[in-house]
């Protein structure tokens, strides 16, 4: 499990990412802490339009064992109220934003 900040534009939300399938080593390498032990935010820096050509490319990469990992992001926080705040941030600043753009977020991790 990875825990840290997910960032897009000027927005962040605390989240936990749970490994579902793919290459666990890829996740360990890509989401490793800094040498000083701090966890850098996972920055979504690009949008990918949800067009068939792009989706087919992603589907092709998911057939190659070293080319993908699937993680589930969930809100996290210090207490119940903080988790609810983070959940709202994920919903409105991430999910609603990308849905309105008919796009997926892309983070360059390696």
What's the quick description here?
By secondary structure, the protein is of the alpha+beta class. The protein has a single domain, classed as Beta Barrel (Ku70, Chain: A, Domain 2), CATH 2.40.290. The chain has helices at 24-30, 52-61, 80-100, and strands spanning 2-8, 11-22, 42-44, 46-49, 69-75, 103-106.
CATH class: Mainly Beta
Helical content class: 25-40%
Number of helices: 3
| Number of structural domains | 1
Q: Can you describe this structure?
A:
This protein is α+β, with helices and mostly antiparallel strands and 110 residues long. The chain has one domain: Ku70, Chain: A, Domain 2 (Beta Barrel). It is 35% helix and 34% strand. The protein has 3 helices and 6 strands. The strands form 2 sheets. The protein has a 4-stranded mixed β-sheet with strand order 3-1-2-5. Strands 4-6 form a two-stranded antiparallel ribbon. A hairpin with a 2-residue loop joins strand 1 and strand 2. The two termini are 18 Å apart. The mean pLDDT is 92.
């Amino acid at each position: 499990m990875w825990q840290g900040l997910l960032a897009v534009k000027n927005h962040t939300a605390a989240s936990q990412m749970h490994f579902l399938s793919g290459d666990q080593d890829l996740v360990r390498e890509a989401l490793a802490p800094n040498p000083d032990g701090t966890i850098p935010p996972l920055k979504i820096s690009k949008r990918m339009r949800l067009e068939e050509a792009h989706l087919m490319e992603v589907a092709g990469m998911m057939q190659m064992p070293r080319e993908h990992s699937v993680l589930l992001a969930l809100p996290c926080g210090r207490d119940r109220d903080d988790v609810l705040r983070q959940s709202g941030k994920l919903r409105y600043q991430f999910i609603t934003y990308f849905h309105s753009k008919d796009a997926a977020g892309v983070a360059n991790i390696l």
